[in-house]
Design brief:
Strand content: under 5%
Number of domains: 1
Structural class: mainly alpha
Shape: globular
Helix content: over 70%
């Protein structure tokens, strides 16, 4: 079946929304997970909270938008992933809820501040790890029946050496982004900024090793059918990923925290689109049964057309919001403002 323009467009738009979430919420999830290793007292923890306080909830909108777009554009893929990964998704949602609650309560409840702080850390760790595991599953493939329903073992059936590697790669990408953001926002000079900068390079080295391990494992043991017309793009994205991390390490070492963070964000975008071009035209690969593809899962052409119209209206508004909020709270955190 020949694919239409809107079907292909929405396939890549959904990955664009996922990339937006990976970049924007990735750094604040990573910052939260790393905070016990970076912040050594209440003031430093307050600085980290302040650095993401005005923006973290807006960053999560991209996840909701990606889920809604998948439901509207490719309902069969939405149904399979959200039902087959039900327990994993509930753990992710539980983590995000606990994270949000602990973030709000931690600053206003000194008696329980230690409890809420660790809830914040653990609530950020769960989605940071499990989202990568889920991505590994849709790439590696899951067993499905003729109706497209997942027929494997709940939760445990989603864990394999490859999915653990992809989970760790996603986690360490977020940890790198969190360390880069903390180094960018922490006051200068400060021990907090030095610790964040010191963590950034080792985490980036581990990320490169994990990227090589995931790539090798996928090539030798997974190897789904890839669209040959995108082979050059895949190699180009992989090269940009590696070069961007190396340059980020070099610039971070020289104290250019802004470009170190921006290049780390570019790596996240490259990784998401490397996945998109590697899976095309599959949405969920099947190890048993028929894979869910753009052709057999897309909504009607009329629905996709109207979605595109609404996207052209809504996306600029979201981007303007992010531009305003990031510009308003640009610069390093001032410790004099922590009480406000």
């Amino acid at each position: 079946m020949e694919l239409t323009f809107f079907e292909i467009l929405w396939y890549f738009l959904i990955f664009l929304l996922i990339a937006g979430y990976f970049v924007l919420d990735g750094f604040d999830l990573g910052l939260a997970v790393l905070s016990p290793f970076m912040a050594k007292n209440d003031e430093e923890r307050a600085v980290l909270r302040r650095s993401i306080g005005p923006i973290w909830d807006g960053n999560e909108v991209w996840l909701l938008t990606a889920g809604g777009a998948l439901f509207a554009a490719f309902p069969d893929a939405y149904a399979t992933t959200f039902s087959g990964f039900y327990l994993a998704i509930m753990l992710v949602l539980f983590g995000l809820i606990v994270r949000a609650v602990s973030f709000e309560f931690g600053a206003g409840d000194p008696k329980w501040s230690g409890f809420w702080y660790w809830c914040f850390v653990i609530g950020s760790l769960l989605p940071a790890l499990l989202m990568g595991v889920a991505v590994g599953n849709i790439y590696q493939g899951i067993p499905m029946n003729a109706a497209g329903d997942y027929i494997g073992i709940p939760l445990l059936g989603l864990i394999s050496p490859f999915t653990l590697l992809t989970g760790l790669l996603g986690l360490f990408m977020m940890l790198c982004a969190g360390a880069a953001w903390a180094a960018l926002k922490a006051p200068l000079p400060s021990d907090l900024q030095k610790r964040a900068s010191g963590l950034r390079i080792p985490l980036q080295v581990i990320t490169l090793v994990l990227f090589a391990a995931v790539s090798a494992y996928a090539h030798f043991f997974v190897s789904p059918d890839m669209a040959p017309e995108f082979s050059i793009l895949r190699y180009l994205l992989a090269i940009v990923f590696v070069v961007a991390i190396i340059v980020s390490m070099v610039l971070g070492k020289k104290g250019n925290d802004l470009w170190a963070f921006l290049l780390q964000s570019l790596c996240a975008i490259c990784l998401v689109f490397l996945l998109a071009f590697s899976m095309f035209p599959n949405l969920v690969v099947a190890t048993a049964g028929e894979s869910i593809t753009i052709a057999n899962a897309a909504s009607s052409e009329l629905s996709l057309m109207w979605m595109t119209i609404f996207l052209c209206i809504g996306l600029p508004l979201v981007l303007i919001y992010h531009f305003v909020i990031y510009r308003t709270f640009r610069g390093r955190v001032n410790t004099a403002d922590l009480a406000h």
